[in-house]
Amino acid sequence: MILAQLAHFASHLTHIAFFDGEEVSFSAIDLWNHMGWLAKGVAIILFIESIWSLAVMIDRVLYFSAARKQSREFAPKVAGALKDGKLDEAIKIAERSKKSHLAEVVAAGLSEFRATGSSEVGIESSQRALERAESIVHAKLKRGLSVLATIGATAPFVGLFGTVVGILNAFRSIATAKSSGIGQVAGGISEALVTTAFGLIVAIPAVMTFNYFTGRVEAFDVEMDNSSSELVDYFIKQGGKR
């Protein structure tokens, strides 16, 4: 991903330029070949971070899509079963929707309610079961988001480290060659710019998707809170019929 974007970026540059009569190449391969081992290490780290963040993005998109789809199918079915007083059927419906965030919470509450009954103690126990299930599902929904946050926060600094190394190499080249021509430092400067670009290319998508997924998790939390509240109301009504 990173190397492909770098190659696309580099293709828009002049592959061969002349500075003070010196020939300097800016192709992606030549830039890589002229990098020092430390700068190459920075690029490899950023490449790994890019693959890792992409894997988290794909995993969360698939998980959230499945949760949304199954919850939309689950909600009216379980509501109909509870309305008809079919508690066991409602639990079976919830247990079949394994990827639904709502189903996992509702199944925990209904199972506890069936086990403890509609007494005041039973209702309180069922409410605690709902709260525990919400916490577990919330943790599942947030899985991997800390990785995106970490990559988004650190990738620019990793790229900046490569930039510092590139600039130092450029000045070292000047000192070694005892020449101040731009061609003498172009390699080090290009190396610095490439690692900076790497860092930004990795960090920007990670930050954007982290914010997006965080918003989705908050929306799921609201849905679980509402479902739990409605289910507690149902328990209280059932207790009032005793």
Q: What is the structure about, briefly put?
A:
The protein is mainly alpha-helical.
Architecture overview:
This protein is mostly helical and 242 residues long. It has one domain. Helix content is 84%, strand content 3%. The protein has a two-stranded antiparallel sheet with strand order 1-2. A hairpin with a 2-residue loop joins strand 1 (16-19) and strand 2 (22-25).
Features of this protein?
mainly alpha, 242 residues, 3% strand, two-stranded antiparallel ribbon, 84% helix, single chain
The beta-strand count equals 2
The number of helical segments is: 8
Structural class: mainly alpha
Q: Name the shape in a single word.
A: rod-shaped
Q: Indicate the percent of residues in helices.
A: over 70%
Rg (C-alpha, Å): 28 Å
Q: What's the number of domains?
A: 1
Order of helices and strands: HEEHHHHHHH
Classify the beta-strand content into a percent band: under 5%
What is the spatial order of strands in the main beta sheet? Answer: 1-2
Low confidence ranges: 9-24
The profile of the biggest β sheet is: 2 strands, antiparallel
The overall pLDDT, averaged over residues, is 81
First CA to last CA: what distance? 63 Å
What's the SSE blueprint?
Elements: H1 2-11, E1 16-19, E2 22-25, H2 28-34, H3 37-83, H4 87-96, H5 101-116, H6 120-141, H7 145-177, H8 182-240
Antiparallel strand pairs: 1-2
